[in-house]
Design goal:
Layout: E1 5-16, E2 26-42, E3 47-52, E4 59-62, H1 69-72, H2 79-90, E5 96-102, H3 112-123, H4 130-143, H5 151-158, E6 163-168, E7 173-178, E8 184-189, H6 201-215, H7 223-226, H8 232-257, H9 260-276, H10 283-293, E9 298-304, E10 311-316, E11 330-333, E12 356-357
Parallel strand pairs: 3-5
Antiparallel strand pairs: 1-2, 1-12, 2-5, 2-6, 3-4, 6-7, 8-10, 8-11, 9-10
Helix pairs in contact: 2-3, 2-4, 3-4, 3-5, 4-5, 6-8, 8-9
Length: 368
């Protein structure tokens, strides 16, 4: 009997450390209790058909779809390109019928695409560690047309409940940082949808590459290295990355010490850097950050994700933010486990991904 498979992968909120992943820097994302569930039942055919709550008419893709950007770019709707890229990379053995559901608001900067890809990779038969699955998903999204880094799929695959994941992208090592119990994370939608394909994300990647060609990987650079950048725009981009990496480490240390005020101050500094040096904020997002920071009990707030709209994350005392007060939507998010369980939480290579039968919560293997 052919059993249906079911995998759930969480979204993420990046507490601090944006545009550092593709620069060999550091970041501190958190897997959250919103996610994407993919179900799939093989039927021996040559086509994979997926239905979703957002696209009930479904999409049908060939099992032998080539990993070719010129082919993937023709698929419609756009999310079919992500599905097609995963199919091509995983190399599925059978067609079948699948369904995709998500609790992540699309375009809110909470990594709905990485959540989708991690869930799909698992349900279509990919196995391996959190790092292995993350690399596969990063490659798939790159082939689908967006030059993303590895952060989002890595935390979706390898997050830990009650913790942030401090990632060093120079070697992909991870350290779990406890989130104090008296801290609450609130995500507020700015009302400005974020779509990386139609923003200047690729331009920022190119600018960082140009700066790195002069002074080396930006995530490994320091203030003294910045003197070698005479182009003012490249200097601003590099300055953000260098200063952001320092802030990430400061926030990780502050959280470990339970110093929420220090952590919140660094979040505000991060937002100013993203707005001024990296120019990825919007007037609506800036106003939202200012409003949140004016509330009693909010330690700090910043745009989260790549910017260009999306959501703002606030670090605050429990109950400090009334989520009903924001017309575009707001929610309290809880640091949650990723799709891949880690037998040794200090080593992201330990966990293994395997598809679970439909009816179980997700695809988690290994012992805690």
């Amino acid at each position: 009997m052919i059993l249906a498979r079911r995998v759930t992968a969480p979204g993420r909120v990046n507490l601090i450390g944006d545009h550092t992943d593709y620069n060999q820097g550091v970041a501190l994302p958190v897997a959250i209790d919103l996610g994407t569930t993919a179900e799939f039942t093989p039927n021996g055919s040559s086509l994979l058909t997926f239905f979703s709550t957002h696209y009930p008419q479904g999409i049908s893709l060939r099992r032998d779809l080539p990993l070719d950007p010129s082919v993937l770019s023709t698929l419609e709707p756009p999310w079919a390109r992500l599905v097609g890229a995963v199919i091509a990379i995983v190399g599925v053995e059978s067609g079948g019928i699948g369904r995709i559901e998500t609790t992540i608001p699309i375009g809110a900067g909470l990594s709905s695409s990485a959540s989708l890809m991690v869930a799909l990779a698992g349900v279509l038969g990919a196995t391996g560690s959190a790092r292995t699955i993350a690399r596969l998903c990063q490659q798939a999204e790159n082939f689908s047309g967006v030059p993303v880094g590895i952060m989002d799929p890595l935390v979706s695959a390898g997050g830990r409940a009650g913790h942030g994941m401090l990632i060093d992208f120079s070697d992909l090592s991870t350290t779990y940082v406890p989130i104090p119990e008296d801290a609450q994370l609130v995500v507020v939608d700015s009302g400005v949808p974020r779509t990386l394909r139609f923003t200047e994300y690729a331009a920022r990647v190119a600018e960082c590459e140009a700066a790195a060609s002069i002074i080396g990987p930006l995530g490994l650079a320091d203030d003294a290295d910045l003197a070698g950048l005479r182009d003012k725009r490249l200097h601003r981009r590099a300055h953000h990355v260098v200063s952001e990496c320092a802030r990430v480490r400061q926030v990780a240390a502050a959280l470990a010490d339970g110093d929420l005020e220090a952590a919140g101050s660094r979040l505000v500094e991060s937002h100013r850097s993203l707005a001024d040096d990296f120019e990825v904020s919007t007037p609506e997002v800036d106003a939202l950050v200012d409003h949140l920071c004016s509330l009693d009990g909010v330690y700090g707030a910043r745009v989260t994700g790549a910017g260009f709209g999306g959501s703002v994350v606030a670090l605050c005392r429990p109950g400090a933010v009334d989520v009903r007060a924001f017309p575009a939507g707001a929610r309290i998010v809880v640091p949650s486990d990723g799709t891949v369980a880690d037998a040794d939480r200090g080593n992201s290579e330990v966990g293994q991904l395997s598809a679970a039968p439909a009816g179980s919560l997700g695809a988690v293997a290994g012992a805690d």
